[in-house]
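User: I'm writing a tutorial on reading structure tokens. Could you give me a worked example: one chain, its sequence, then its tokens, then a sentence or two explaining what the tokens reveal?
Assistant: Sure. Here is the example chain.
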Amino acid sequence: MSNGDIDRWYQLARENGALGGKVIGAGGGGFLMFYVEDKIKLRHALRQEGLQEVRFRFDFGGTQVVTES
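And here are its predicted structure tokens:
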């Protein structure tokens, strides 16, 4: 699902170094995720639009038990 703002931000990201991206979330909001090699230019462009960066990392360890009852 997309809208005018999301389309504009996606295009802006592509113009500022993103090689691709994906809209994720539950509709009416959610997240835009981009793949980019040089993130500095993209980060600046999206901040100028008032967007907030949420950093993440992939975990390749799989499912783990955090607590036991």
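What the tokens reveal: The mean pLDDT is 89. DSSP finds two helices and two strands in the chain.
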